[in-house]
Fold these 4 entries.
Entry 1:
Amino acid sequence: MTTTVRTKLNSLYRQWLPGTPLTTEDLATHDISANLAVYYVRAGWLTRLARGVYCRPNDTLILSAGLLLLQRTVVGLHVGGKSALDWYGVRHYLSHNPVLQLFGWTSVRLPDWFKERFPAQYRRKRLFDEASDAPLHADPFEKRSNTPRVSTPERALLEVLSEVGVSQSLQEARELTESTYSLRADVLGELLQHCTSVKTVRLCLQLGRELALPWAVKLDPAQLPTGGKRAWVSRSRDGLLVLKP
């Protein structure tokens, strides 16, 4: 191996954080071409995860680093729903094998290298009227730098409720809602105003009232998109769901 090739590899390793996958574009910023990357893989100095994605040999990938890479290619990608609630300590029970819930704007298939290490489900969903590059209340986790985008507890609850009758049981949604005593009414109200799902808005208001949660009394249904005066009715595996305005 020439001195130049050795120098490039050493320089890369000095700056490469363990557990972080890199793309061909990332390697190019270190003056490592696609052909040179192939050479490193054959020599055992790089491990190829997928076409154009690499990691250190025998490295254990870090979830946050994998999510940050996916965010670069999947529009609107963020941790949401039950997973986001769990990250913020809002949970009804502990799961031994939790499946990471991811949401985004486009129809994509999560790469195998990610799913093999981090069991996950991805849903294409546009629950709010928002910009893809500035989703409402889905920010870097705890506002820290170099962390993946995660729904706030307020947004995460609405994402859970939006799945009721689809992939989410009403009973579990109710139990999770019961644990959201400390939600911020102003943040929840803003999200509800931009929510495109009448079912989600009505279910949130209904459960909040039934469970006597403090944020519920601070929301004015007249200022929210609750739809018309007719009841919203849906039949699912949980039975008949009737949501009044």
Note: The chain has two domains: 3-55, 63-243.
Entry 2:
Amino acid sequence: MKKYLIRTVCFLMVYVVVHVTAICIFGPWVTFYRIGDSGQMYNRVLDIPNHKAPDILFIGSSHTYRGIDTRIFARAGVSAFNLGSSAQTPMQTELLLGKYLDEIAPKSVVFEVYPVLFQNDGVESTADLISNDHIDAGLCRLAIESGNIKLINTLVYGIYQEYVCKIRTKTRQKDTIGDDLYVSGGYVEKMGHTSFFADDLVEPVSVTIDPRQLTAFSNCVRMVNDRQLPYIIIKAPLPQSTNANLVGLKKFGEAMCSFGTYLDFNELMVLDDTCFFDSHHLTQSGVELFDSRLIQAMDSMGFVDQKDGFVRQGSYRNQSTSRFLSPN
């Protein structure tokens, strides 16, 4: 029995060494690791020290980094930093806030929520962070708890790249990747695109909320409340056909309203399909319209002062109610 245990332990040790070695050699082909991809998270993390104490920190999915143009807010006298990332679910939002909220030190926070991602397993977003953010204990835990073997292999390869190969000291991501342009402050502008057609849509999607994601979002709100920061929750506009394709939006909206002020911009404005380059993301002209409406809405509720360009820390209070303002 003793010999069997010794042989088993030896086999496992050799297996681990061989497995890890194989991942380090064949990582680009057998993992999700993609440093410097089109989501521009690598540049966004490097940009954080350049945008300390903004009026607003925006955080959420690609609807955030492709929909919130910090230049438009600057024109309105409001400084902003965009910490969106690809397919970011509340679990990744919680990780990023825990890591960067105090470093960025914003005066307020805007959570962008995409209902579908509340039922997502977060594998894509975690892989993006492993590839493009600093790997720490929290990110390791998130990857391991996923139970996804390929994601765990991605973590192993990411650790090898960051701490052995020192890749983050050698890599500088280009601001332009294809027709995506990184703008200082976290925004990614789509410079060229084809028109979106509603015929591209798939079958209706039922919106459900994974309890783990709801708990993570609750933790995010708690972190912001603990620092006494004003916040609101928004759903970025989608093509009307895409939005109609989501079944269960009312229940999702009620869940978000339980956390504070929630603005669904498909209820606040109407954009035609020419304002989108695919079934989810705005063109630059669509971004201009959305951000202008968002600033107007935040100004009307006292969240920002569009004239003087600052967050009204004393006048705005988080409210557990929806705020569906008139589209006109």
Note: The CA atoms of residues 53 and 106 lie 5 Å apart.
Entry 3:
Amino acid sequence: MSKIVQICTAVPPHRIDQASASKTVTQLFRNSGLDIDRLLPIFLNTEIENRYISAPIEWYEHNHDFATKNALFLETAIALSEKAVAQVCDQANIAPDEIDHVFMISTTGIATPSIDAHLLNRLSFKSGIRRTPIWGLGCAGGVAGLSRAHDWLKAYPSKLAFVISLELCSLTFISNDRTRSNFVATALFGDGCAAALLAGDQHPHRNGRAIRIEDTAAVTWPDSLDVMGWDINDAGLKVIFSQSIPKIVQASARPVMQDFLNAHSLCMSDIDYFLSHPGGAKVIAAYINALDLNERQVADMRCILRDFGNMSSVTVLFVLEHFMRSGQYHSGARILSAALGPGFSSEMLLARSC
């Protein structure tokens, strides 16, 4: 097994509330042919109040080519990742050169060398550090990154690993893409970074509150490639975002998760906290209905969605950090984390606070 011993987060400096976002988007989509008056309630119905973005709001009112957006992605990604990792090292009282493996998760920009290689030069990671950049898992990437780190630490239980998740969703915005999917994305997505420190069972690290990962699982549904993802063109990463996602959650979540729990002789009533990627208010509602959850079980998800929006793969790490620092935390609580991503797929993680 392995345990999450510390999570720290970082966001860009530009905060935007939903009212300001709604006003800007109304102006941008005014001549799009969409029924703006019918779509505008989406901003209120998301239950999001604030988000953080990588440039001033005026920057998004103009067209930018992919090269310009990706250059800003790289600059911001390195800065936020460095900040989050440095905070973890400080709070966990470790040095960067004690880390044995870094798993770098991102899907909203392209970097080769990957972002973790840039961090080696800034944070004094040891030259022999193992590096595993993971691209393309979208919102599922946060849970997947924790799962892959857990797998590695089972094989090397005396080691330490970082999972760094970094998504700058706002930089994928294409100002002249006047589709409904792009409109919905402007109401949901924000930017953020999270770094999680994981320790193998034989590592002597002690750091108070922690989450022990017990098992992980994944499923990819066939013939579902068009549910979410990117259509990559000259302007950048054009969002593919199906309206059917809440319905898929409602229909498919319970059997998949119950199969996962059955392997441990558990059922949903044994789960104390559902600390998952919130997606949006409709996705949370679908999970509640499908899994018979109560509001206490999803409270951390709602808090993060309200204050930061949907940050793709990063969001679940914000949710886990919120729980670890909250008054709800208590030793022995059973935790189920899940996230949906392109494929169309689900990543799942079973854990217990300790």
Note: Residues 140 and 341 are 4 Å apart (CA to CA).
Entry 4:
Amino acid sequence: MFQLSLDFFGLPAKRPTAPRIAPVESKEPFLWKHGIAVHFLRRPRARRYLLRLLPDGTARLVIPRRGSQAEALRFLERSEDWLLKQHTLWRSRTRARVPWTDGATFPFRGEPVVLRVVREPGHVRLAFADQDLTLPQQLPDYHAAVLAHLRRLAERELPPRTLALAERHGIKVARVSVRAQRTRWGSCSSRGVISLNWHLIQAPPYVVDYLIVHELMHRREMNHSKRFWALVAEACPTWREAEKWLKATRLDTLA
């Protein structure tokens, strides 16, 4: 994972004319130049602008407490060479992967789906299963755009499902976080924070529910003792089948 901060440049923040780029302070990722999707996050505790290349090839730009959207955009423009270099390195590591274009297949909710790319005047429409998204321009590879959409979907669906199951089983959680762990499907902290891998949106629904229940039961047993597995079995009778699916599915094969 690569990261760049404002201090990297060693220059005072200037205020040139803001580039004509669409507003970005939203949950939707911003499709920047070179086909790179950028997530903008405002973090009150951050002291400076931070730019990071994520494992899925998208970028994340953190805006500090006193920062502005306009300055974040200028910082992104000043970081173009650095970000493009890191993105090129990322692409070189994944060069064996076939670009995602019309007809590409990938798992979604436990089933293989086909990506359809429809070119329309002024934009491109991507469709798969019951999903539909629009991009402002054509790209040679829609991999990053589709993954960004899947992650947004996971962030929208997984937390409420977790809270619903927690309520059903009478378990209190402090917070639900959807993350991009490289090797873990989920975790539960001693403070009651449930972290789920966004790739769960690609798993079958029964696997998603099992994984959530698994982490919820750690609120009662912070171990994998016989008592823990008894709690899991009682709450999720299909846990063995779900475990087999999780053990047979490598995270790095889903994207």
Note: Residues 143-168 form the longest helix (26 residues).
